[in-house]
Design brief:
Layout: H1 4-11, H2 14-19, H3 33-43, H4 52-55, H5 64-69, H6 74-77, E1 97-101, E2 104-108, H7 134-146, E3 152-156, H8 165-176, E4 183-187, H9 190-193, H10 200-206, E5 212-216, H11 226-237, E6 242-248, H12 256-268, E7 272-278, H13 292-302, E8 313-318, E9 323-326, E10 332-336, E11 339-343, E12 349-353
Parallel strand pairs: 2-3, 3-4, 4-5, 5-6, 6-7, 7-8
Antiparallel strand pairs: 1-2, 8-9, 10-11, 11-12
């Protein structure tokens, strides 16, 4: 039987449900007065917002969902890291555009999310009205039109799917009118954090803009609920390929079995694991950082134990805007003469012949 509060959530419009989000710690009964006071200090610098659906996934204080959503005093007491670790501002030719790679750009079209992740690499500006404006969107579109080498546009934010259907339609239409833009991608956490936003009306609108790709963001198996699965199925049934960019987070998912379960569940709802990110070195998030060896160990444990379809690429987004690089476990041990010495997922060593180029 579906709990009564879940039924009420399903009956409300997504806008109404989002308007009932909590934005201060005073609305969290599981906190002590001292904890509430600390969080008030944090949100004076980094906003808090948790929609009713995601709030309902928290089972107890300190669990994997809680850690992602509820502010922590270490966000303002920690001095490690950088405000803009990926140098997005330095790679921004106009406000709202990051042009890091030759043929593609990141285009910020929303300044808000349905839940403000406490580890966000844009926490320096997400949730502020100045992050995205009508003017920055127009400037971004003009830049894309004028820059012929751009063939791939990634819409991000904030969360692009928090725009109204009409606002998103206008932006997608403008991009589709640009002859050199071949691919449009949307980066969104909505299918995970607020699946109620994925409506039939949204799906019908998005279907008109293929080739359209969506990368979403699940971090823990508990986030794969019936509601999230249904939202993903609607998107996939509309012909939109779904990938997942998971972030490795201490105290949330830095465990081989948790990641394995997550990847298998993602495949079960037709979401392809794409990236497992080493957490960005964002100031105020060092309590989420993991040792690099942890990620390598997790990937090594996945290799051979689940289908390759479910193994994401473990990547680091280099500080300073150097781009993403894949990090892989060591399988090549040595090269001896015409043989490659390798180790498989079980740790067994093999010799593999190196075929000489006959040209």
């Amino acid at each position: 039987m579906i709990p009564a509060h879940k039924i009420r959530q399903q009956m409300k419009s997504w806008e109404k449900l989002l308007s009932e989000s909590i934005t201060t710690p005073d609305e969290l009964s599981l906190l002590t007065e001292t904890e509430k006071a600390d969080i008030h200090k944090v949100i004076s610098e980094y906003p808090m917002l948790i929609n009713p659906y995601f709030l309902g996934l928290i089972k107890e204080k300190g669990d994997a969902i809680y850690r992602q959503a509820v502010p922590d005093i270490r966000e303002i007491t920690g001095s490690e890291g950088l405000l803009d670790p990926l140098n997005e501002e330095g790679l921004s030719p106009v406000p709202g555009i990051t042009h890091k790679y030759p043929d593609r750009v990141l285009f910020l079209i929303s300044g808000h999310c349905a839940m403000y992740c406490r580890f966000c690499n844009r926490k320096r500006k997400v949730g502020r009205t100045s992050m995205v404006t009508k003017e920055t969107i127009l400037e971004g579109l003009s830049y894309i039109k004028a820059t012929k080498e751009i063939r791939d546009v990634l819409l991000s934010g904030g969360d692009p799917l928090l725009l109204s259907d009409n606002e998103l339609f206008k932006i997608l239409s403008e991009l589709r009118s640009i002859s050199h833009v071949e691919i449009i991608r949307i980066g969104t956490r909505i299918p995970c954090s607020f699946p109620q936003r994925v409506t039939k009306q949204l799906i019908e609108m998005l279907k008109g803009f293929h080739p359209l790709y969506i990368n979403t963001h699940f971090n823990h198996p508990l986030e794969i609920t019936p509601q999230a699965a249904f939202a993903c199925s609607m998107l996939v049934d509309a012909g939109i390929p779904l990938g997942c960019q998971t972030v490795l987070l201490k105290g949330v998912n830095d465990d081989e079995m948790v990641i394995k379960e997550l990847m298998l569940k993602l495949l079960g709802i037709r979401v392809r694991p794409y990236y497992l990110f080493q957490a960005d070195l964002v100031k105020g998030t060092s309590h989420f950082w993991t040792n690099l060896q942890k990620g390598l160990k997790i990937i090594s444990e996945l290799q051979g134990n689940i289908s390759g379809l479910g193994i994401p690429r473990f990547v680091i987004d280099l500080p300073g805007g150097g781009g993403k690089i894949p990090i892989t476990p060591e399988y090549i041990l040595d090269i001896k003469g015409n043989e490659l010495m390798v180790r498989n997922y079980l740790g067994h060593e093999y010799r593999y012949p190196i075929i000489e180029d006959g040209s």
